[in-house]
Here is the input.
Amino acid sequence: MLSQEKLQKIDELKKKYPTTKALVLPVLWMMQEELGHISTEAMKYVASLLSVPYSHIFGVVTFYTMYQSKPIGKHHVEVCTNISCLLRGSGKIVNHLEKRLGMKMGETSKDMKWTLSEVECMGSCGTAPMFCIGEEYHENLTTEKVDKILDGLK
Amino acid sequence: MENIILPNIPDLHKIDVYELHGGYKALRKALEMKPEEVTDEVKKSNLRGRGGACFPTGLKWTFMPKQTMKPKYLCVNGDESEPGTFKDRQIFEFNPHLLIEGTLIACYAMGIHTAYIYIRGEYGKWVKMMEKALADAYAKRYVGTQILGTGFSTEIVIHKGAGAYICGEESALMNSLEGERGYPRVKPPFPAQVGVWGCPTTINNVETISNVPHIINNGWEWYSKIGAPKHPGPILVGVSGHVNKPGVYEMPTGVPLLDIINKYAGGVIDGKSIKAVIPGGSSTPILRGDQLDGVCMDADSMKAAGSAVGTAGVIVMDEDTDLIQVLTRIAKFYYHESCGQCTPCREGTGWLWKIMKKFERSEARKEDIDLLLDIANNVEGNTICALGDAAAWPIQAMLRRFRDEFEKRVKPEIVRVETGAVA
Ligand SMILES: Cc1cc2nc3c(=O)[nH]c(=O)nc-3n(C[C@H](O)[C@H](O)[C@H](O)COP(=O)(O)O)c2cc1C
Ligand code: SF4
Ligand code: FES
Here is the structure.
């Protein structure tokens, strides 16, 4: 399920940790990068690759919020609603997003284009309100700015 | 005071620019000292941890065993997930080599040959920046085997988290690094005895480690004279909320909170008055806006004021803020982030959030005020890790300092009419 290049990277990573189990998080990241989400199949694959029980992999995937065990939209919009963002109007951003995309927080659109999530503090409190799409942080949001960002996404 | 953790030098993240401004000089100097001398220097400087607990760094380093057959590890904590905190991210972006240099010096002082820099998963972009900086440092032989031609060798590995506030707690971080779920461990044993993979381990915050090169370059005496004597040094203060210029500001410790808000962060928006301030990230007890006179950003002053420095994430709330809404959001956060291992935390955080929602909707009963306090008191001190305390403190402080806000949200009493027979 992983490319030759990634398998090679795993071999190099093995030298950096005293146990293979320590590679669980890095390898799960690779799986998610490659497949978009981590399916049951993918979990079983990682389990055999690292010689750890499937139940362990399942436990890890479900513990960490950033691992997706189900397919999500092409663009994952994660809006921070924690206090610094709340104080600077994240509520407005949430409303605007829900209205514009016609969906609620936590939902994925039928065409698999969008997933909307509410997230905890992203470490962007000084540039609140914010959301991130993929790894990209979008800060100091206004509803106009939100429209521009969404318009720019295919 | 000039900025030394985040100096205003363009392109400082590039290794040649960093070297041009004296970068890696401290490493050279440290390698010419004895390891114990390096630790001693840090100890005398009075540097205290910037990860939340203000623990003396040099003292922590002395807990590491000198004679041991096991490998020793350093974990640099860059999980930065405490709401209101966004300072370590600035170091990753603007001064990554300072962190790498500090990490190397810490390893040398404690006889460590492998360090892991654990960075929260959401910081994917900054993980890449750190990886680039680290690759450059490897290429120049600052990291790896026989550093700068000496007999000292250290590997540095960057490890990316995957979304869990609890992984910032040091023992949860170690479990996460081992490939486990981020469950905190029962202490004792402490990490210096039994840490990651059962080996002696030291955990320090990113900003803490970034202070070390400056201490080595300029000496402990110089450092200990910056800011508040018992909690000295530069400190990165992140100001957010209702201020005109939110952001991270470097300053000596001990600056009055009101100066931080008014002089550094440009004052409150529209000149409104301050209703409340959370001084050090969401876990630290809230302060009333009318009680800020003389409260300064150092451990003693904050303690005297009934709060804590925490991560120095100052959250400012103006006169129109709905504090009940803010506290409800904080309660939800701790409920969401509890790892679920201990009953008081798992159940307590859920109940605190539920009751707070009743107040938010003005549906609470008068007794709910005491119930909140009772639950918070029963969570505090009864759990494996300090997340339980961190969930209880904001509630306790708000009840102590803003009880009227709760009373205002009690549903009007349904008056029971006694209909006893009149004889
Ligand atoms: C729930 C919880 C979350 C924490 N999160 C962090 C964090 O994100 N970063 C950090 O440096 N310390 C965090 N800490 C504190 C660490 O446990 C530890 O004390 C710190 O990293 C030690 O570094 P220092 O001595 O340099 O401050 C957290 C503690 C608790 C209880
Ligand atoms: S206090 Fe909460 S977060 Fe900490 S170990 Fe217990 S349940 Fe987990
Ligand atoms: S509170 Fe939203 S980024 Fe910190």
